[in-house]
Amino acid sequence: MRIKKTGYLVLLYLSLLSCTKDQQDVVETFVYYDQWALVINYTAASCYNCGSWGAPLVHDLEKSDNVVAICVHSLSDPMYTPMMLNFKNDRPTGGEIPAFWVGDINTIDEKSTRLAVDLVKTNHPVAGLEISHSIVDTAMHISVKSTFSVASKGDYYLSVFLLEDGIDGSSSTGLYRQIGTLHSYPNNDYTHDFVLRYSSIGSEAYGEMIIENPYKDQVILNEYSFSIKAYPKENIYPVAVLWKYNQEGGNPHYKFINAIK
């Protein structure tokens, strides 16, 4: 019986080798979700360098694939929100602006920021995100789905932010005028984009814990509702950021996992 069985296996192996590619079953690798890069830009309308190179850089990065940009405005700025201080507690600026955090990487110039974005995109995220929203009257309803591709230990937090584009930053707008940017001249048409306006958890930048020790293929659905009566509907949109809380060592405690817009 052993001889016959061995002969059968050899014939089966040879027959498989003789099959064409079209005749064989093709096993495809399913990619859960791509890795997105999160770019946090600390900025101010009154900051010359924020306009001269910070603003063009963040606009350029946001246009590329899989990048979520968030502009966090300083205390003296009319677009300031208390979330700025909450962000800085975990992701300090070093006292200068423009300052960038790309995921968990602090950068201080254009070259290092671009390199950090490319580096983050090479990661294999433990979870992917999906986001959808609808607007009814003066309310925006948001759904975020988090899908974990592997089992993981730890506490995971989800932030959902409301961002605004298209805020006039031209020379006639007083404190909103963006100093330093060449894009306002001669056309004088500069706009502030990716402006952080609101969070699902008040002034808490790092959101709420949604899962502890997720298992492989676990799916978590979270629903939110924002009042948008203070903002033009055509210029606002939600983004979501997934973090893992790490109690070991220094900043940042909230390690970046993934983002979506």
List the defining traits of the structure above:
261 residues; alpha+beta; five-stranded antiparallel β-sheet; four-stranded mixed β-sheet; 4 helices; 14 strands; 35% strand; globular; disordered N terminus
List the helices and strands and how they pair.
Elements: H1 2-18, E1 37-43, H2 48-63, E2 67-73, H3 83-90, E3 99-102, E4 105-107, H4 110-120, E5 127-136, E6 139-148, E7 155-164, E8 167-168, E9 191-192, E10 195-199, E11 208-212, E12 219-227, E13 236-245, E14 254-260
Describe the structure.
- The protein is built from four helices and 14 strands.
- It has helices spanning 2-18, 48-63, 83-90, 110-120; strands at 37-43, 67-73, 99-102, 105-107, 127-136, 139-148, 155-164, 167-168, 191-192, 195-199, 208-212, 219-227, 236-245, 254-260.
- A hairpin with a 2-residue loop joins strand 5 and strand 6.
Short description:
It contains four helices and 14 strands. It is of the alpha+beta class and 261 residues long. Strand 3 and strand 4 form a beta hairpin.
Ends distance: 62 Å
Using the CA coordinates, give the radius of gyration: 24 Å
Largest sheet geometry: 5 strands, antiparallel
Mean pLDDT: 88
Order of helices and strands: HEHEHEEHEEEEEEEEEE
Helical stretch count? 4
Number of strands: 14
The assigned structural class equals alpha+beta
Shape: globular
Low-confidence spans: pLDDT under 50, at least 5 residues?
1-30
Give helix % range: 10-25%
- In what range is the share of β-strand residues? 25-35%
